[in-house]
Design brief:
Oligomer: single chain
Shape: globular
Number of helices: 5
Strand order of the largest sheet: 1-2-3-4
């Protein structure tokens, strides 16, 4: 493989976040468990980048719910620090721009945290499930990354990272 993207779509023993009934869920507990399971993925380590951090927010937004991430900041920073320490990257996923969420996953605040912690390995993906969505939002995500201060975008070959200047 050239590139392995890790992502968490469901908690252990639970269906994909897409299928949950958010009227019946303890949303803060659900998100805490999501972040804990992301830590386990980072500890596993056999991947190159962590995909669509904040994935549950897409389906919360679809259900008309919003989650304040401030109470989770320490746990999010912990996940990001472990990611950086492990030499792994973070994906900016643009699929949230195409729906109710209205932002990338993760959004600007978490991308800033990642940068402040020392994160540099950044990829961008459209998470396209149709031809029409292929590449959608990539320019916006690149502009966001550049605005935050990232200078490079990562690409991979044979699981080796190559840093490409944003203004190349």
């Amino acid at each position: 493989y050239d590139f392995v993207l890790a992502s968490l779509h469901n908690l252990k023993g639970r269906p994909d976040f897409y299928f949950l009934d958010y009227e019946k869920e303890d949303i803060p507990a659900l998100f805490t468990r999501y972040l804990t399971e992301l830590e386990e993925i980072v500890d596993y380590g056999n991947f190159d980048c962590l995909g669509h951090l904040t994935y549950p927010l897409r389906y919360l937004a679809k259900a008309g719910k919003k989650l304040d991430l401030a109470p989770f900041e320490e746990q999010i920073r912990h996940v990001l620090r472990r990611l950086v320490d492990a030499g792994k990257g973070l994906e900016i996923n643009t699929s949230g721009l195409r729906g109710e969420l209205g932002e990338t996953m993760p959004g600007a605040e978490i991308l800033r945290m990642y940068k402040q912690i020392g994160g540099e390995i950044l990829t961008v993906g459209s998470d396209a499930h149709s031809c029409k969505a292929a590449g959608a939002g990539i320019e916006q995500a690149m502009a966001l990354a550049e605005h935050i201060g990232f200078e490079y975008i990562a690409t991979f070959s044979n699981r080796r990272v190559y840093m490409i200047p944003m203004n190349a």
